[in-house]
Inverse folding.
DNA sequence: CGGGTGACTTAGCAGAGGGTAC
DNA sequence: GTACCCTCTGCTAAGTCACCCG
């Protein structure tokens, strides 16, 4: 990995001198065309290539760009009434009001009277940089102290039991719990864990046995102990479980809510992350490293000046107390593995989060008014003679059409994943005339694989960007990074960045898909259609999930079910012919399928049925006898079971005969009409089951939730529900309903994205 | 003026919890 | 009532983007 990165860097440097190639392009005097309908601001675009070539700096672009966007803000016809849903003078709500909270259900009869919940979306919006006036909360909840294992549970080294100091035992335990998982089997994870483990062991005084080789460590006893504990927990009575839950709730309670400007709001992650082993995604070089325990001294609290500082046990102190009302976090600490900052924030249903969510979608909606111009421009710029402009245009195309992420640069301390700007030579394969194969790992090391047709000029450009001397490891967009791209976007619309395209295209796609759904059928059918629309969006955004363990068998089961239904149907048709042989000629199409199932197929189905029946009687017998045993009654004689099994045996014989003759036994009183009805029923069930199967298959690798939570404007879902008479619970879970309350309350069936 | 980093959104997964079939 | 399965929630890693500082 290091090697790769090394070579990447080298190649990049080499690239700079390869300017030769594009000189014909970049030398051209002509200013970037983008500006032709703007006044005359070409600098921001050429800034990076200027830098690369070390040309005399242009008078700082960023300030200008800022100024410019400000000017634009004023001149651009503001996207009108979109910004506010409803306006209201809404009083400041000086305290006392917060006495009412959770019981909003009963309260919302008179919604003009906004007691209960705070309807921020009906308020006048300020500039947004001040997040709060007062903020009061109880701080954070720390994980419990480590409890040492019973003395008989130990790590074994080279066959010998090891006495570990508690600190080291804890770390060993972190690993022991994972030995059966992919992480535990990952050599990088093992190595990183082991290094940190040895360190902790040394610091905590060492063990009775000298430990130096990971391979000689035996964690199985510890693992078994954890498994045992899990079992114990599972087999607790529900009363015990309830008691534990109640205790947990009680401890959590104070932390759950805070006071924001005097109003109650929920806190999100008030729990400090417990120590453990870092579980990086994909091929993360630091995966397995020890994530250290965080104490009060590591925590910075953020709250109002006048608010009481949450107390701590004697002798302990908070790391720092801040009163920063320009940020929306309540507490913060630095984490040791990546050196990043972790925050305690408001919950998703809080007004602050809701507001910024609303703004996000409004911004995306605003893009509607500019997208045409942007597309027109980038199509033109694809042929621009300035290399940078071509790269900007091509990247914009990829972001717009394939919903790629911006793709910022990453260090080699992280997994090697890419987005648009960081795409490399090897991630794109070109096949004339215009087929492109994308194959790379994106965010969370999720594979992006797509074989697509692109605009001819895009194809040519990609070819140009791959031109020798570029080789695998080189950046495709060697002039580009997200900040250049975003500066380009800001020219069209203030606040427009690469990620807005994803939101826009996702919501736009959803709107278009919903428009195609006819208002008919049952609620469940409509929900299925809704999910299908959702799935289109999820696919666009490449939201995946790993196929669940049981998926394969579940699919097999459904397939068996379908086969059996088909068999039943065919059987009915055969019976019809037994009653009325002349039908075969009269309705030949109808009877076409009667020989579709092979003997083997039929036999398999028979076997399945027989097996099922046998099991049924066995378990019935057992169940009834268990009950009798418990009630001290006489047990059923074996003969009861045997009688039932005899019935199964007769059925089996019947099937055997049927298989030979091709003729089922005709039940008494059977008529053509009855059979027709049955066939219809079977056909219905077959269609339903097939739909169910398709849904399952289609969904097995696609995660719908991510787009529903982050990309699809919730007002679309609300609109759908109102328009199609679908209860909102069918598309939003309880948490989502809370998160999207602002959307649920503010739109009707005519709303459009 | 560009690299680092703070603050925020977006992401998949594990485990809890709740519903359903037997 | 139990086993199983699927959905939902909580968790925390991994992105994006703006701003700050040397």
């Amino acid at each position: 990995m290091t090697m790769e990165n090394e070579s990447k860097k080298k190649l990049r440097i080499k690239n700079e001198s390869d300017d030769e190639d594009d000189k014909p392009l970049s030398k051209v005097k002509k200013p970037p065309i983008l500006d032709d309908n703007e006044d005359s601001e070409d600098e921001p675009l050429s800034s990076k290539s200027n830098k690369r070539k070390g040309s005399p700096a242009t008078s700082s672009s960023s300030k200008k760009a800022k100024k410019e966007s400000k000017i634009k803000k004023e001149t651009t016809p503001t996207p009108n009434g979109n910004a506010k849903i409803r306006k209201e003078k809404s009083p400041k709500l000086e305290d006392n009001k917060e006495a009412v909270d959770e019981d909003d259900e009963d309260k919302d009869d008179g919604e003009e009277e906004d007691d209960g919940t705070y309807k921020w979306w009906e308020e006048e919006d300020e500039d947004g940089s001040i997040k709060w006036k007062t903020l009061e909360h109880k701080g954070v909840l720390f994980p419990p102290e480590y409890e040492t294992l019973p003395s008989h549970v130990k790590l074994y080294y080279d066959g010998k039991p090891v006495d570990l100091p508690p600190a080291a035992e804890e770390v060993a335990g972190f690993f022991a719990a994972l030995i059966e998982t992919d992480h535990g089997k990952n050599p990088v994870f093992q190595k990183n864990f082991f290094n940190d483990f040895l360190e902790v062991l040394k610091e905590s005084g060492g063990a009775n046995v000298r430990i130096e080789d990971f391979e000689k460590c035996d964690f199985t006893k510890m693992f078994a102990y954890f498994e045992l504990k899990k079992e114990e927990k599972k087999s607790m009575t529900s009363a015990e479980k309830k008691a534990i839950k109640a205790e947990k709730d009680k401890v959590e309670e104070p932390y759950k809510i805070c006071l924001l400007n005097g109003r109650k709001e929920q806190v999100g992650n008030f729990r400090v992350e417990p120590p453990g082993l870092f579980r990086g995604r994909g091929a993360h070089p630091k995966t397995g490293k020890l994530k250290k325990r965080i104490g009060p001294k590591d925590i910075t609290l953020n709250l109002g000046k006048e608010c009481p500082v949450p107390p701590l046990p004697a002798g302990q102190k908070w790391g720092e107390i801040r009163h920063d009302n320009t940020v929306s976090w309540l507490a913060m600490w630095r984490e040791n593995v990546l050196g990043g900052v972790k925050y305690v924030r408001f919950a998703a249903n809080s007004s602050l989060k809701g507001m910024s969510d609303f703004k996000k979608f409004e911004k995306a909606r605003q893009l509607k008014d500019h997208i045409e111009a942007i597309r027109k421009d980038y199509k033109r710029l694809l042929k621009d003679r300035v290399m940078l402009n071509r790269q900007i245009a091509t990247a914009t195309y990829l972001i717009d059409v394939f919903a790629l992420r911006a793709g910022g640069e990453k260090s080699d301390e992280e997994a090697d994943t890419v987005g648009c700007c960081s795409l490399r030579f090897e991630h794109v394969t070109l096949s004339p005339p215009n087929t492109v194969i994308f194959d790379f790992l994106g965010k969370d090391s999720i594979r992006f694989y797509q074989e697509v047709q692109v605009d001819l000029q895009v194809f040519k450009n990609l070819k140009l960007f791959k031109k020798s001397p570029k080789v695998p490891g080189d950046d495709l967009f060697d002039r580009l990074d997200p900040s250049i791209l975003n500066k380009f976007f800001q020219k069209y619309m203030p606040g427009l960045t690469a990620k807005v395209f994803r939101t826009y295209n996702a919501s736009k796609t959803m709107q278009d898909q919903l428009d195609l759904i006819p208002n008919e059928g049952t609620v469940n059918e409509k929900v299925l259609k809704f999910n299908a629309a959702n799935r289109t969006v999820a696919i666009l955004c490449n939201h995946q999930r790993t196929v669940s363990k049981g998926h394969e068998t579940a699919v097999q089961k459904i397939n068996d079910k379908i086969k059996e239904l088909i068999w039943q149907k065919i059987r009915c048709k055969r019976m019809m012919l037994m009653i009325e042989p002349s039908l075969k000629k009269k309705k030949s199409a109808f009877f076409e399928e009667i020989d579709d199932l092979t003997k083997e197929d039929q036999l398999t189905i028979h076997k399945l049925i027989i097996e099922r029946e046998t099991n049924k009687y066995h378990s019935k017998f057992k169940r009834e006898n268990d009950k009798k045993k418990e009630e001290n009654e006489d047990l059923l004689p074996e003969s009861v079971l045997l009688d039932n099994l005899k019935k199964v045996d007769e059925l089996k014989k019947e099937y055997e005969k049927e298989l030979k003759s091709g003729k089922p036994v005709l039940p008494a009183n059977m008529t053509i009409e009855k059979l027709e009805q049955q066939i219809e029923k079977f056909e219905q069930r077959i269609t339903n089951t097939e739909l169910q199967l398709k849904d399952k298959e289609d969904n097995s690798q696609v995660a719908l939730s991510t787009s529903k939570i982050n990309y699809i404007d919730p007002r679309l879902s609300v609109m759908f529900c109102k328009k199609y008479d679908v209860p909102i619970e069918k598309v939003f879970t309880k948490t989502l309903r809370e998160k999207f309350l602002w959307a649920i309350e503010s739109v009707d069936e005519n709303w459009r994205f």
